[in-house]
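ok, trying the design again with the full structure, not the truncated one.
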């Protein structure tokens, strides 16, 4: 008679503190294993080594090493590493799944994937998706447009415009359809920003705003392939009132 094994994971709630866990694996019957669905990072074995379960995606908490204890194991092209980016020396850093390659790829769908792990996630629901060395050449895309604002006279106001493009985009600010590029020579208006990987965050700062600053502000992003823009309305009210315009 052919004997198969079925694994059952039993966690003792009394011993579940500070990683002090006990487990007990019983007989394993693969035919009784639940079918894992929607596993965009592939499959890994459960803690008893019997059933398959979804692997963890990039950025998810994970178990260090090769043993699936509590949080789970990372999927293909991923590695579980301690996250020390927050600089918290007094707390134990959290382990997260990190993609082994950060090489940017261009998908056949025209989308830029920041690493192979993001591409694999997308390819799960689009099996015909192919990639080449990236990023994809594209006209600018405004990922975070400026928002409408209302604030009081004398307040400090800031508009944000986040742009993705390759080649890198140039971002300009203008007001009320005029051709003057802000901040111009106005000392109470300034702009700042910095590039990330194929992205640019641009801020337009207005100090000690007056009702003369009310109007429509436009963020314009352009590169050699084209340009795109987004607008936001600023209302400056008498001192003492402050709210966001929806």
């Amino acid at each position: 008679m052919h004997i198969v094994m079925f694994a059952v994971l039993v966690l003792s709630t009394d011993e579940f503190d500070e990683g002090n866990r006990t487990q007990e694996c019983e007989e394993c019957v693969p035919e009784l294993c639940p079918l894992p669905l929607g596993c965009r990072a592939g499959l890994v074995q459960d803690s008893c080594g019997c059933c398959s379960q979804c692997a963890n995606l990039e950025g998810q908490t994970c178990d260090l090493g090769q043993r699936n204890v509590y949080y789970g194991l990372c999927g293909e092209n991923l590695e579980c590493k301690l996250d020390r980016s927050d600089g918290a020396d007094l707390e134990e850093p959290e382990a997260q799944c990190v993609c082994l390659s950060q090489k940017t790829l261009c998908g056949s769908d025209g989308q830029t994937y920041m690493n192979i792990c993001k591409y694999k996630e997308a390819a799960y629901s689009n099996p015909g998706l192919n990639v080449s060395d990236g990023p994809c050449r594209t006209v600018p895309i405004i990922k975070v447009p400026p928002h409408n604002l209302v604030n009081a006279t004398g307040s400090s106001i800031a508009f944000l415009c986040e742009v993705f493009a390759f080649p890198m985009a140039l971002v300009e600010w203008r007001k009320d359809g005029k051709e003057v590029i802000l901040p111009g020579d106005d000392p109470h208006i300034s702009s700042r920003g910095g590039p990330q990987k194929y992205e640019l965050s641009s801020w337009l700062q207005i100090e000690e705003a007056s009702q003369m600053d009310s109007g429509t502000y436009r963020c314009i992003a352009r590169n050699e392939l084209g340009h795109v823009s987004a607008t936001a309305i600023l209302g400056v009210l008498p001192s003492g009132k402050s709210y966001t315009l929806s």
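Keeping the full-length input from now on. The chain has a mean pLDDT of 84.
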